[in-house]
UniProtKB/TrEMBL annotation:
GO MF annotations, alphabetized: magnesium ion binding; phosphoglucosamine mutase activity; phosphomannomutase activity
CDD domains found in the cross-reference section: PGM_like4
Pfam families named among the record's database cross-references: PGM_PMM_I, PGM_PMM_II, PGM_PMM_III, PGM_PMM_IV
Cofactor names: Mg(2+)
UniProt similarity note: Belongs to the phosphohexose mutase family.
InterPro entries documented for this protein: A-D-PHexomutase_a/b/a-I, A-D-PHexomutase_a/b/a-I/II/III, A-D-PHexomutase_a/b/a-II, A-D-PHexomutase_a/b/a-III, A-D-PHexomutase_C, A-D-PHexomutase_C_sf, A-D-PHexomutase_CS, Alpha-D-phosphohexomutase_SF
The keyword Aminoacyl-tRNA synthetase is annotated on this UniProt entry: no
Record's protein name: Phosphomannomutase
The organism's place on the tree of life at top rank: Bacteria
Database matches in NCBIfam families: Arch_GlmM (TIGR03990)
UniProt KW Electron transport keyword: no
Length: 449
């Protein structure tokens, strides 16, 4: 049986084992108490298990005195935007993000439209552990209203981004293939592209939750999209995950450019127009850092996790930020990862570059990244980190989130898992061979006694 995963990203579990009706109700009651019975925006991705979970969440919120604004199947970033629009006390997105079909979960957001910061999330989880609730009498029950214009408002917000020229993109008439993996993206990405004058080749567009392939937008899962780009001689292809906060790009020859480059392309476009600050997490490619430094812009790294990036962005008033998993955060729209924003910025960048998507990628700093994990069963992860920190003390060291060691043209980031006895090893270097060698070297160093 899988574990119930509880983190700053919310909770996730497998339907029929760990994410049970009892768990869903308990955590929803805790969140209702946290927002003190206030207005809550509720949205979900297209997972097959979504409808029954939505019924449980809606009913529990109403029983707790909350007014529920139900916006149905929408991207997670749409829920964030709608919290602001409705001036709600918070929001819940029913999604397991990129996890396989048997998973679902709850993502909790505050009145600012962002995921709960760590301390607030811990408060909600503590209330859930203690089975805290504030159920109301018949005369103080909440109610449900339905709003079907959330996606329309999201698209309008994207089209108003100051860095894009909608009319110029329309004139270019890009031919774009898009794979929304039968997730919530089918409700917004093709529509956004058509509004931008693109000729759209959509695959896996029906938002029925029966994912056509493994839903995480990694290169190995983009085979259908790559074929669609080649067969239709498209200018590029976009793939999004089921809740539409991550975006991956396929070039005009049908090759994935790597999800790290979604953020790099957006950063280059934004900084070419306005100087500012940028925040990414510790595992994000140096390509974005090189671009920010080229434009003499302040560049800061945060702990891994969208809320950690967003909090640091708010703190330093960043112009752009995100995570290297295809997650672009543009505060002009809102402080959260947003695939529709990434799509619009990419089209503007390609328009201004004037060449092909392959040529645009080639114009950026070139790095290759590998992500591995190694068993540390029976070993103390903190002792491992301290040992390697001492060994590499002459290099640039960062211990904000695990251990990151920067060398001249490459780096390695080591993070212990909070749920299993493994250590994650992320390495980046100018070539794939060098990145593999760096990761393998540290995997051996981690396990040596």
């Amino acid at each position: 049986m899988s574990r119930l995963m509880v983190s700053i990203s919310g909770l996730r579990g497998e339907i029929g084992s760990t994410l049970t009706p009892e768990v869903i109700v308990r955590y929803t009651q805790a969140f209702a108490k946290y927002v003190n019975g206030g207005k809550v925006v509720l949205g979900r991705d297209s997972r097959v298990s979504g409808p029954f979970i939505a019924e449980l969440v809606r009913g529990t919120l109403v029983a707790s005195g909350c007014q529920v604004v139900d916006i149905d199947i929408v991207p997670t970033p749409t829920v964030q935007l709608e919290i602001e629009h409705h001036q709600a006390a918070g929001g819940i997105a029913i999604t397991a993000s990129h996890n396989p079909i048997q998973w679902n979960g709850l993502k909790f957001m505050g009145a600012d439209g962002r995921f709960l910061p760590p301390a607030a999330a811990e408060q909600v989880y503590r209330l859930a552990d203690q089975n805290e609730k504030q159920l109301q009498t018949w005369d103080k029950l909440g109610n449900v209203v339905f709003d079907d214009r959330a996606i329309e408002r999201h698209i309008k917000k994207v089209l108003s981004i100051s860095f894009i020229d909608v009319e110029a993109i329309k004139k270019r008439r890009f031919k774009v293939a898009v794979d929304t993996v039968n997730g919530a993206g089918g409700r917004i990405i093709p529509q956004l592209l058509e509004t931008l004058g693109c000729q759209v080749i959509a695959i896996n567009q029906e938002a029925n939750g029966r994912f056509a392939h493994t839903p995480e937008p990694l290169p190995e899962n983009l085979i259908q999209l790559c074929e669609a780009v080649r067969e239709n001689q498209a200018d590029l292809g976009f793939a999004v995950d089921p809740d539409v906060d991550r975006c991956a790009i396929v070039d005009n020859e049908g090759n994935p450019i790597g999800e790290e480059y979604t953020l790099a392309i957006a950063a280059k476009l934004v900084f070419s127009k306005q100087l500012g600050r940028m925040v990414v997490n510790m595992s994000t490619s140096r390509a974005s850092e090189d671009i920010a430094r080229y434009y003499n812009s302040m560049f800061v790294r945060s702990k891994v996790g969208e809320i950690n990036v967003a909090e640091k962005m708010k703190e330093i008033d960043a112009l752009i930020g995100g995570e290297g998993n295809g997650g672009v955060i543009l505060p002009e729209v809102h402080l959260g990862r947003d695939a529709p924003v990434a799509v619009a910025l990419t089209l503007q960048a390609l328009l201004e570059h004037g060449g092909t998507m392959k040529e645009l990628k080639a114009s950026l700093p070139q790095y290759e990244m590998v992500k591995k994990k190694v068993s540390i069963e029976g070993l103390n992860p903190d002792e491992i980190i301290e040992r390697l920190k001492e060994k590499y003390k002459d290099q640039e060291i960062n211990t904000l989130d695990g251990l990151k060691i920067d060398f001249d043209d490459r780096w390695v980031h080591l993070r212990k898992s909070n749920t299993e006895p493994i250590m994650r090893v992320i390495a980046e270097a100018p070539t794939l061979k060098e990145a593999e060698e760096l990761a393998d070297r540290f995997m051996k160093e981690i396990t040596q006694k």
